[in-house]
Amino acid sequence: MPVWAGLALRAQGGSSVTPSSNGDDHGTVAPVASHGDFPANLHGLRRCFPGRWASFLHAHFLNAAHVAAFFDVDDRTARAWLSGKHGVNSAPVILAMQRIPGAVAELLEAA
Question: Of 27, 47, 29, nearest to 37 (Cα)?
Answer without folding.
Answer: 47
